[in-house]
Structure formats: C-alpha cells, structure tokens
Amino acid sequence: MDQKFIQAKSLQEKLNLIWSQDRRLAPLELENLYKSIHAETQHGFQILDKALDRNFGGLLPDKASYSMDYNEGVFKRITESLDNLEMVGLYAKYVIQNCRVESHRPLLKQLGYVAERLIRKFRQQGTIEEKLQLNKEIVIDLVSRLCPKDMTYNPELLQLILKAYKDYKDDELLKRLADSLIQQCKDNANQNSDHDWLMLISTIFDQAIEQQGICLYILFKKIGSTKLGHIISQHRNYFLINYFDNPDKSVKIFKGLIKYSILSENLSILQEVTDILEEQMKQNSNQSCYLILSEIYLEVILPLLLPQLHQNTSILDLLQVYMIGMSRRQEQLTDDYITIMCDRLRLVIDLRQNDRSIFDKIYGFMNAIHKKYQNKLLHHDSFSKLLHIARDKSFDQFNQIDHPVWDCQKLKNLNFDDSLYDRPNHDNYVGLENLTNTCFMNSILQALYMTDRFRQFILINSIPEAKQYNALRKLFMLLNFQQSGFCSPYELKRLLRAPYCNSNDQQDVGEFAHHFLEDLLKYIPKEQQEILERIFFGTHRSVIECPNCDVSFGQIEKFLGIDLHLNKYTELKDMIAQVYEEEKIEFTCEKCQRKSNDIKKSIQLNDLPPVLFMTIQRFQYDAQSQQMTKILAKVPLRFLIDMREVFQQQHLDAMDSQYILYAFIVHLGKNSYSGHYSCYARSMSKPETWICFDDAQINKYELSSEDLNSQLIDEETPYLLFYKNKSGHYLSINK
Q1: Which of 19, 161, 250, 555 is 20 to 30 Å from 464 at the Cα level?
Q2: What does the record list as GO biological process (predicted)?
Q3: Cα separation of 419 and 425, whole Å?
Q4: Strand 562-565 vs strand 611-617: parallel, antiparallel, or unpaired?
Q5: C-alpha distances in angstroms, 658 versus 219, 626, 653, 729?
Q6: Could you give the maximum distance between any two Cα atoms of the chain, in Å?
Q7: CA–CA gap between residue 599 and residue 588 (Å, rounded)
Q8: Which residues lie below 8 Å from residue 578, measured CB to CB, with a gap of 6+?
Q9: Shortest CA distance to 461 belongs to which of 293, 241, 649?
Q10: Cα–Cα distance measured from residue 452 to residue 7, given in angstroms and rounded to the nearest whole number
Q11: Residues 677 and 439 sit within 8 Å (Cβ to Cβ)
C-alpha cells in the first residue's frame, strides 16, 4: 500500500486511496506512508488532514477500539520527520478528537517535543518569522492542546504563544489558552495540581519579567485575586528565593505585573509579595529585603502607582505600607510626588463624593500620612484641605490606620537566612516524570537531592550564568518546596551533553553520574567548584614497585567514585579492598629501564571524600551473544562500613572511618540496553524509613538491612551505592 500511495500522481488518486483503505498497515509500511505525506510540497497538509481524519492505516489508537494495539514507537518516528508546525497542529487536533483519553498525554507530549524542536530549528535558521505565519485556528489549536499538558517543560512552546498573540493582535488565543491552563490546575482528577498551580504562577512572574502585560491581564482575571494570593502565600519561600532575591528582578516583576492595567488581582499580588518581604525583613533582620522594598518604592510605587491612584483606590493600601514604611527617608517623597498625590486624591473625592464608604479609607490613609510626614506637608495647603474634606465625609472620624516604620539601622543580615531553604514538610517527597527511558537520570537526580550537603549548596547558591547548574537548582527548588505530585526534569535534560539531551535510549546510570557531575563543575566559578569537589572527590596516586630499584609514586590525582568488580568477591568490604590490592604486571621500569614481569602495581588511597559513591560493575561483554550481559550475583547491602576494617588500619579515626549508606540505585533487568532504574534513599526526618523514588511514583518502607536485601528480587540488583562519612569529614588514610 505504501508504494502504491507514493506512486499515485494526482491529489485525487491519493485521497481515493485514503478513503478506500480500511485495514491496519504494518509498522514499516505505515511509517513510509506518513513520511511520504509529510514530504508532499503542494498538497501535504490537505492529504494529512484526510489521512488523520480517517485514521488511515491505524496510526492512532481510536476511540472505537478497546485495544491499545498501536505502536507508540512508530508514532514517534513518524512525527519526528515533521518539518511543518501546521502539520503538528493537525496531529494534535486529531489526537484529541479521535483518540482514547488515556493515550492523549503520551501522544501530545511527543508532539510538544516536536513543536519545540521545530521552533528552535527555525530560530537558528532565521526563518522563525516566516514559519510562524500560520493559519490562526491551527495556532490556537496547537498551543491550547499542547501547552496545558507540557508548558512547564516546553519553554519554546510558551514563546510560540506569545509570538502568535503578537502576530494576530487579539486575545482569543490567550483566553483559550488561559482557560485550558486553569482547567488543568482545577481538575479534581489531576493529582499533580500543586505542581501545575506553582508553575502557572511562576509563568506569570516569568512573563512579568519579559513585560508581557496582556498575557498577565487575562490570567489575572481568570484566576482571581483570592487564589493568586493563596498560591503565593503557600509557596512563599519558593517565590521569594526564585523571584524576589534581588532589587533589579523584583522591580522588573512589579513593573511587568502592572504594565497592561491595574486591577485588584495584580495589586493583590503586589501586596502579598510586599507582606512576604516585610515579614522576612522583620523576622531575620534581613537588610536585602529592605533594599528590595526601597527600590520597589522608588521605581514602582511612587512613579507608576501613585499617578494611577484615581483609577483604583485599592492602590491606597500599597501606598500606605510603603510611604509609612519608608518614612525615615522623607526626602524620597518629593514635592512633585506630593502634588501628584493631592491631585489624584482630589479626583477620587470629586468622582466618588456620593460614595460615603470610600471616605473612611481615604481619611485613614491621609491621617496616617499626615502624622508621619507632618513637616514635609506644611507647604502643601491642598493636602490639609483634602484631609478636612475626607474627615467630614468619613463615617469613622476616629479611624486610625498605621503601619510599622522600616528601620534599616537595626537590620544586620545581608543575605536570606539558611532556614528559608528548609523543606516545609520532611515527610512529603516529589517524583520526577519519565521523559521516555530517563529513569537512569531521574534516579541520579533523586540520589543527589537526598545528599544533604550537595542539596543545601545548590539551593543556597545562585549561579544564573551557569545554565546546567541553574536548571538543576530550579528542579531542586521544586523537589524542595512542591508539596505533592511530580515535576519534570525536561529543562535540565535539554542542557545535558549528547547523547543524554537528544536521545530517548536507556543509558548507564554510573557513566551518567560521572558525566553529569563533571559537566556541572565545569561551568561554575572556581570557588564554588572547589566546594563541590570537596563533597564528592577523593585523592589517590599510582604506586609502582620495581624489584630491581625502588618504589615510584605517581602524581596525586582526584577521583570521583570507586568502581567495584564482581570477579572475585561479593562482600562490599572485600570488593573495596580489592581495588587497592597489588597486582603483578610486565612493565619496563622508568627509573632503571629494565623490563620485568615481577613489577608490582597498586593504587594508594590518600583521602576518601565525605560523600562516597561506588558503582558495582555488573555488565560484561559476552562474545557469543555480542551483548553486554548482566552479572546477577547477590551483593548484600551494608548500612554501615567501617573503613578501618576494609584497609586493616585500626589507627584511623573511629568517627571519620564510618560510612553510612543513605541512598542506592537498583537496576531491574537482564542487560544494559533495557531494564529500569529506581532510587532508594533514607528519609530526611526518619532514618529508619526508606523512600523508593520510582520516577513519578513514591513509596515508603521501614526496613532493616536484612529486610532490604531480602526484598530485592534477583534481577533487582543494587548498582550505585551512596555512602556518607558519619563525621562529615574526609577520611585521611595515607598522607
């Protein structure tokens, strides 16, 4: 059928074949056929529309069939050949329209990846303007169907939304998208709604930084001020650390939030953030919060909100907080600002003179400002006149509104307190979404997150210019502050080295661990690099003992992790010791230049790091099958290893010598090309409880060492072991 279709000359011939064909096609035939449609230069869109409408060849799992008998791999390969965003939109339309609900997410996710890849490609080629001139309905379908499911880890799709809006100059697209996003968050069946709300509010702040006012206006109105305030308050530490940690970013966000219009919804966000900054400033004597509030006052409140006072009297609440808070810096409220304030208050009084309820608010505000700025207002008669008018029209003439004055002299701490980075709930853990065979990556990320010193360093230290580091920090923030569900490592994945960034194939978890940490260190400043190295890296050197001359020592080198082999022992202590045993080799001595087969070679261990991970090398090449086969030999887990016993050196410090197992990664499967990785780690609050991180799934077990060993089936083998020094120090062995 595929050849017959490809050889058809006219559009009508091809359409007739589509209408006449009902049988399901073989995978290769199906792939060739749809790829040929994608390659059609003249009528490709029209032919694809008819083919998908008919589900030509049985490509999609249609609603009428109760079987999941369709090939997701074929769908992936077919859609990866797309080079046209309009066609991506067609696939999204028919997946929603004709497929069973349970198949929507994986298929739409794949289309999301394709759309992002194409947008990035068109940008690199400089053809993005031309390629985004799409049919309006197709654009709306594309973003409203793909983005609600995948917006949080498809940043390029968000750019498509903004670009589409800019091109078409109406809000239909954004309203429909906003409805889809909010419905996704509100859906009672959505077990990940906590994450989705968190990401939606993060999107609002991101767009505010980019000054995308119209998008914010629509989202504000549809979400509502109560929900906005609740989400920000619930995740206050997350937003404070990520968005309001410096004056420049905070001012950008405040300006972006009010760029398009001033509503009760965006004012409620400004008020909520102000309250959070003020609370942090008071509780922890935080000087940086004062500097942020001061900059917001000078750059946003006085020049942008004060002149709009007559448009929305809710501005009075914010003005009061900032003007009283900053009243020790009276010179900042210039005569020009006082004149503007009086003019706008007069407008409000004239416009609302029959609304007696508003005068309680106006009088309370003016009375509080008069008390703090009495000397400053002496030369402004208009303020006194307006104050008398407001008092006469007020129901409550004894209305006393006050607010604390911010005293920067009492603030001692320049940075956020470390407690701000603490997990809000030690018993709730968050999973990671599997992005197609990414369990190897997810298991390492969870093990690293459960590494206390590493997690704390990443959370506390912001290095925005280091892209991979910054993506990891954002992910750790979600793992730390999200209360339930799962989040996606997509943004981090796309920044990794090849093949991890561009392949959906299973990878070796031990190899990935080394590559990931090495790359993470490569692009961060030397000072931070050294701190991280002191967590994971030990030191050793090679030793060559020649029978004809002397012992020679190699250079001291850093090492990351220890590889353990199953060729002799199955007890961990013996396997570690074996790494450092002497072996006889045939070698030409560099000193005496004599060749001998009696030369002894070994590795001398100098220091073991505070955090030691060890890989049990279970895969070996089998010449007969020409594959990497797996050694299933049982290696019992040991919760505690005393290195004095391993190296037979009883003089070593007792505390520094004890290493505790806090996490391990298991591989379930028979070879290195398949199978599944998951991570087990000790609970932070209950060391006797083990958390199993199995991609998005989280399970808890209270198991002893013996129980854990017996729970794991033969093919579920511990592969990567994470130990930490009981004292938190290096263990010096040979100095």
Answers
A1: 161
A2: protein deubiquitination
A3: 13
A4: parallel
A5: 54, 41, 9, 10
A6: 108
A7: 9
A8: 564, 565, 568, 569
A9: 241
A10: 63
A11: yes
Task: Provide the 3-class DSSP secondary structure of residue 54.
Answer: coil
Q: What 8-state DSSP symbol labels residue 116?
A: H
More confident: 128 or 449: 449
Q: What separation in angstroms does the CA of 382 have from each of 343, 435, 559?
A: 9, 65, 75
Write the single-letter amino acid at 215. C
C-alpha to C-alpha distance for 366 and 380, rounded to whole angstroms: 13
Kindly tell me if the per-residue pLDDT of 237 is higher than 80.
Answer: yes
CA angle 314, 351, 296 (to 5 degrees): 30
- The tokens describing 477, both together, are 């923030």
Query: 431 - beta bridge partners?
Result: 486
Phi/psi for 277 (5° steps) reads -65, -40
351 three-state secondary structure:
helix
Helices (H), 550-647: 572-579, 643-647
The tokens for 86 are 């309009």
Amino acid in position 520: L
Strands 486-487 vs 431-432: parallel, antiparallel or unpaired: parallel
Strand, helix or coil for residue 309: coil
Pairwise CA distance, residues 555 & 237, whole Å: 46
**Plot region of 465 (φ>0 → left; ψ -120 to 50 → alpha; else → beta):** alpha
Residue whose entry in the numeric block shows the structure tokens 């706008």: 344
Q: Distances from the Cα of 581 to the Cαs of 449, 459, 560, 598, in angstroms?
A: 33, 40, 19, 15
Cα–Cα distance for residue pair 155/717, rounded to 1 Å:
37
Q: Beta 640-642 vs 627-630: how paired, if at all?
A: unpaired
Q: Provide the phi-psi class of 232: left if phi over 0, else alpha when psi is between -120 and 50, else beta.
A: alpha
Give me the residue label for tokens 């967590």.
535
**Tokens, residue 210:** 């980019």
Burial (0-12, 13-18, 19+ Cβ within 10 Å), 529? middle
What's the distance, CA 11 to chain centroid?
A: 47
Most confident of 77-86, 121-130, 549-558: 77-86
Check: CB of residue 164 under 8 Å from CB of residue 132. yes
Q: 664: helix, coil or strand?
A: strand
CA atoms within 13 A on the CB side of 217: 10
Dist. CA 530–CA 513, nearest whole Å: 18
Q: What is the pLDDT of residues 535-589, one digit of tens each?
A: 999 999 988 887 777 777 878 999 999 999 988 888 899 999 999 988 876 676 7
| The model scores a pTM over 0.85 | no
Among 674, 665, 679, 639, CA closest to 718: 665
What single-letter amino acid sits at 578? Q
Q: How many alpha carbons fall within 13 Å on the CB side of residue 642?
A: 10
Burial (CB < 10 A; 0-12, 13-18, 19+), residue 259, is middle
Please tell me the distance from the alpha carbon of residue 613 to that of residue 563, in angstroms, as a whole number: 9
pLDDT per residue as tens digits for the range 30-73: 888 889 889 888 888 888 988 888 888 888 887 655 444 556 77
Contacts of 107 (CB under 8 A, 6+ apart): 60, 72, 75, 91, 95, 99
The single-letter code of the amino acid at 424 is P
The total of other beta-carbon atoms located within 10 Å of residue 634's CB is: 11
**Beta strand ranges found along 280-435 (DSSP E):** 431-432
DSSP string of 300-311? Answer: IIIIIIGGGTTT
Supply 203's token pair.
């999107």
CA distance 63 to 103: 10
